[in-house]
Amino acid sequence: MILTDRRRATSHTLPTICGSSMRSRALLLVLWRLIRRVGLYSKRSWSRLLWTILSSLRKIATHPQAAELFRFIFLGTIVETGRQVAAKVLQFAKDFFVVRAEFASGDFAYDWVVNYLENHRVWNESRSFKVVARNATTRPYPTSNLGKVDGHPDPLYEPATTQSPSLFRWKGYWMTITKTTAGMSHYDTRPEIGAGYGVLVLSVLTWDRSVLDDFVSEARSFYVNSQVLPRKQFNIKSEPSESLLTAHFRQGDISYDWMLEYLRSSDALKDIMELNVTTKQSDLGWGTGPKDAVRFMPAPESMQRLLFKSPRTGKSAWLQVVMTAGSPHWETSRLVGGSITITFHSSDREVMLDLIDAAKQKYTELGTSRVTVHLMDKYGSSWNSFTRSRRALSTLVLPTDVKEMLLADALEFLDSEKWYNMAGIPHRRGYLLYGAPGTGKSSTVHALAGELGLEIYFISLANPGVDDFSLARLISDTPSRWILLIEDIDCAFPSREDDDEDEDEKDEQRKRDRRGNRYQSNQLLPPKSAVTLSGLLNVLDSVSSEEGRLTFATTNHIKNLDPALIRAGRMDLKIKYSLATASQIEEVFKVFFSETDSTEVEQCASKFAAAVPPEMYSVAQIQGYLLNKKRDPLGAVEGVEEWLKEQEAERRALIESKRRWREEMARRRMEEEQQYQLEMQQQQRMEMPPLSNAGYEGGYVAEREDGREGESEDEDDGAGYETPNEE
Ligand SMILES: Nc1ncnc2c1ncn2[C@@H]1O[C@H](COP(=O)(O)OP(=O)(O)OP(=O)(O)O)[C@@H](O)[C@H]1O
Question: Helices marked H in 346-483 — which ranges?
């Protein structure tokens, strides 16, 4: 009954308390029953509950095991608090009594400290190290007595890779040093991280920070004043420091040649550890001594250290040299685009200037004088520069006065800039050098450039990458007072006189499309260059480039040139280069044997000149013959008859082969023409309407007198063909 009553009471109170969900209703019902059973709804029952809890706690506390537990908790709290306080105090003491510095490889400070530590045998004193075999003869390792004379490397001590700190004493202070090397992370994208990255942590047990400053400054001055090459630590490509002086030398600029010669000299080579050994002739020519047959160069793409001592002030500084090798130019295969970057381990500008001076002086002592030549790259987008030996104007064998006249004219032009400005005439002058190949046209330009101290900008119109636009852009990127050299200017445009013998073969090739099919006579021939005549004229007349320009154009075929190209104002002076005259032949002979007894040479020269027919051979051809007899003037005279016979035979053979070639070409042309006509006839027949429909009303194909098929009358414009019937 009681149960029933309670259920009733619950059922009518619950809906006012809870929500609608069945599950929460059931939960609340259980709770409600619990409260009612314990009687928590009354004040008396609360105090009873409290009393129960307290009495239970008292029971637990008086239990012997519980008392033990409380004691442990209490003690533990005290110990942990003490430990934390001690750690805080220790950390504070460490911060206060230990000075800590970090050095990262790639920075010079790192090198100073590492160099200092290595020279003070810190790793030898360490409890953990690795032993490596290196050549230590250049380094003062007093403990190492091995390997001094037998050419084998010495054992050296290096920090162990375990990163364990080494302890050492410096001026009464204890220091610990930790060196981490060899690639902390291979995944790091920063350039200085990866294999070879190193960090050095130096801690000094002192509260005085100036101890560390003193240490670093001692390491620095030890490094700077050291006469022993510091061992290369890490080959880091990035710039080591922005605050130090760095000088860049680019190939094509004469200062690059100075520096290259200096680096090749024995002064610098003694410090350089990675060398390129070559027996290849360099731009600068062979040396005279037997040792010069092998040339040494600092290895490109490597970082080299060398000590430079200024001859003027006696100051010295370590230099870090990084060389980049150039790549071969597409047309000439000369190396272009190389560079030398020198970082001075000093911020003293005087040292840098002294180095450049010393390099220049070394270069002058060698007696090499060079001319800078800029060649366009294969895309016609930029200039690649290099230098080549200067040629003395006196070595050119030209008809009397030509050299003198050219030089005087160019000098006068360069001197009269003001006059040009006053007269409102653009300050530029054009020279056209024309004549047979090998007569000295290009050599004249190079010799003149050396004489006038001007740079040559060489453009090749046959370069597939160059067009009007790129040519104009390239020309605008030039200095004032320069030489523009356009060789074989005729090659750029289709020749208008196809009967030229030398050009026949080239033209024949050009007259074929990519698949080898011949261009028909009614089709336009492709131009030889993407540069158009008007594009070139624009460049010659342009005011965009700096003025003071001497333009030299050379050609073997002046008759192929458009008159617009060579009119006065564009080509002011036209100089003809002929095949060698008698006096030129004699002079070439004398130049060749200038080191032999003069009376003998005089006699031989006139005999030689009398034997060689004038204006038959170029100077280049005569030089070619004399090169084989360069120490034997008498032999040169005796052998000339034989050589002339050979030349004559060669000439005849050449004429004969050209004749045969022309005949063959004419035959092929005729065959092609016939084939073409035949194909056209067949094609027209195939397009012809069926014969059954032919008739007066339907139109027809008429046979023309010349054998070609006519068109139907219906499609004609009214003039019509005469029909066979009408005929
Ligand atoms: N008049 C000359 N005096 C001295 N050397 C010459 C002379 N002519 C030609 N040579 C020599 O012949 C070689 C070719 O000369 P160069 O290239 O100057 O001739 P070029 O007339 O420009 O020929 P091309 O028309 O084929 O370009 C060079 O090695 C040069 O030394």
Answer: 349-365, 402-415, 417-423, 441-452, 468-476
